[in-house]
Design the sequence.
């Protein structure tokens, strides 16, 4: 071996110090609270549409999946949506939801009637290329 190689082999490798590994906390962290849990903690009513399903074979048929907290149901009971002592929460919420839908339909019908009475008619003409003219 040459002198240079001996020096090279004789050296101890230089190891740079690494930052210490972060200590892992063994206690599990609390899971984040949902909007429903936060509203309940604040004493607020809460409802959410979780899913809407539509029958592709019959677009007039569909369903909604709703979630709510007990405070929401209590407010509905106070508003008169509980008709029988043995009504379930789902029946009370469904009655409210049907009422909301009914009001949407009635508002749309009333607007149509007002337009017809005023003599205002809206005409849509297809002018091709995916465009239409409204007059």
Sequence:
């Amino acid at each position: 071996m040459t002198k240079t190689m001996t020096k090279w082999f004789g050296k101890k490798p230089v190891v740079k110090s690494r930052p210490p590994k972060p200590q892992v906390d063994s206690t599990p962290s609390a899971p984040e609270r949902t909007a429903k849990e936060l509203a309940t903690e604040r004493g607020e009513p809460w409802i959410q549409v979780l899913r809407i399903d539509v029958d592709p074979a019959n677009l007039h048929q569909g369903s909604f999946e709703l979630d709510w907290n007990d405070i929401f149901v209590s407010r509905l009971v106070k508003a008169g949506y509980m008709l029988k002592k043995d009504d379930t929460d789902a029946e009370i919420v469904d009655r409210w939801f049907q009422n909301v839908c009914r009001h949407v339909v009635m508002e749309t019908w009333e607007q149509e009637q007002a337009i017809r009475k005023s003599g205002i008619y809206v005409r849509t003409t297809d002018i091709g290329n995916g465009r239409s003219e409204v007059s």
Observations:
- The beta strands are 47-55, 58-68, 124-128, 131-134.
